[in-house]
Amino acid sequence: MIRRLAPLAVVALVALCSYYGTLAAAPYGLMRLAEAKLAKTAPVNNFTHTPPVRAERQFVVRPSPDLLYSVCPYDLTAGPLEVTAVPVPGRYSSISVFDARTDNAFVRNDEEMAGKPMRVVLALEGQQVPTGLETVRVRYATGIVLQRVLLADPSEAAAVDPIRQKAKCRTLAR
User: Fold this and answer.
1) What is the pLDDT averaged over residues 69-76?
2) Does the pLDDT at position 154 exceed 70?
3) Cα 76–chain centre separation
4) Which of 98, 100, 123, 139 is the most exposed place for a label (fewest CB within 10 A)?
5) Residue 10 above 90 pLDDT?
6) Rounded distance between C-alpha atoms, residue 12 and residue 75, angstroms
7) Do 79 and 49 form a contact (C-beta atoms < 8 A)?
8) DSSP 93
9) pLDDT confidence of 107, banded at 50, 70, 90?
10) 41 and 70 in contact (C-beta within 8 Å)?
11) Is the distance from CB of 78 to CB of 171 less than 8 angstroms?
């Protein structure tokens, strides 16, 4: 009886290890693919403000055509990153930070900004940050900052664009 169960136990162990290995590795792999795709058009530690999404130029698998996207791939190995944004009056907008594991490390929307500019610093544990600045400690050196602005109509993009262009990412000097 034990001789028959031994192969089943090995198969079960291999399946279990494969399952958990995939769960652990998949988020990193997906983020690496996204970062590699972004590297072609979006410089690291700088926002790239993309035009409205159309089927022929979509980066995100299922992007929303009523949102304007700005993206800042980041790398904190050179130091902390300052992220600034200005809410677009009368529009839903948000800033989200995703780390190398695709975990959402930070979110701030227009209501939370209360009409005021947002300024936060992304930093790794142990990196020095100027005092008085809101700091978000992330576990991994790389990731993506994503800004989204909701449009009632795609024709509004030109009017909204100058405000969203004020969103910036910049490495703080060591």
Assistant:
1) 92
2) yes
3) 14
4) 139
5) no
6) 39
7) no
8) E
9) very high
10) no
11) yes
Burial of 168 per CB tally in 10 Å (0-12, 13-18, 19+): middle
CB 151 within 8 A of CB 160: yes
Q: Residue 145 corresponds to which amino acid?
A: V
67 close to 105: Cβ distance less than 8 angstroms: no
Two structure tokens written together for 31: 């983020």
CA distances from 37 to 55, 105, 142 (A): 17, 21, 14
pLDDT confidence of residue 76: 95
State the Cα torsion 27-28-30-32 to the nearest 10°. Answer: 160
97-131 core/surface letters (b: 16 or more CB in 10 A; e: else)? bbbbbeeebbebebeebeeeebebbbbeeebebee
pTM, 2 dp: 0.78
Highest mean pLDDT among 17-21, 61-65, 72-76: 72-76
- Confidence band for 73, pLDDT divided at 50, 70 and 90: very high
